[in-house]
Amino acid sequence: MRGILSFLSLVFVVAIGLMIYRSYFTGPSGGIATRGTDNPRAAIDITGVQNDLLAMAQAERQFQALNGRYAPLEELRSNGSLAIDPARGRQGYTYSSDVSDTRFTITARYSGPATGMPTLSIDETMQITER
């Protein structure tokens, strides 16, 4: 009898721990996380996208210093200036660039299943903006 009570107590404690863990990492609904839920996964995804944008902008600046113009992301990737593959994206984000000889803007747009994820962009000032 004592063994059964101990086992049931253990199952109860594990169930409560699982509920706390699930609500912390997936939000109270258990669904896909968005930034508005303060979910760590969404914050990590956005931080990764911001780091990608900074790396792409740095590659643009280096290319411009050597060639006197900015280049599309595909050209940066093909000549080895950019280690990140912009065609792959990251966690539902896709990257695109708008370049001229004197300016560039790189945009990361979210197209995944979650809602409320921001569109991020960076330009030659190296400032990331959120929409």
Explain this structure.
This protein is an alpha+beta fold. The chain contains three helices and four strands, in the order αααββββ. The protein has two domains: 31 residues; 90 residues, Pantoate--beta-alanine Ligase, Chain: A,domain 2, CATH 3.30.1300. The chain has a four-stranded antiparallel sheet with strand order 1-2-3-4, covered by helices on one side. β1 and β2 form a beta hairpin. It is elongated and about 80 Å long. About 5% of the residues have low confidence.
- C-alpha termini separation: 61 Å
Order of helices and strands: HHHEEEE
CATH domain fold name of the largest domain: Pantoate--beta-alanine Ligase, Chain: A,domain 2
Major β-sheet annotation: 4 strands, antiparallel
Total beta strand runs = 4
- Give the class from helix and strand content and strand pairing: alpha+beta
Q: What's the Cα radius of gyration? A: 22 Å
- Classified by CATH, the class of the largest domain is Alpha Beta
Shape assignment = elongated
Helical element count? 3
The poorly predicted ranges are 29-34
Identify the strand order in the major beta sheet: 1-2-3-4
**What share of the residues does DSSP label as strand, in percent?**
15-25%
Q: Into how many domains do the coordinates divide? A: 2
> Which CATH architecture of the largest domain would you pick?
2-Layer Sandwich
Could you tell me the mean pLDDT?
83
Overall helicity: 40-55%
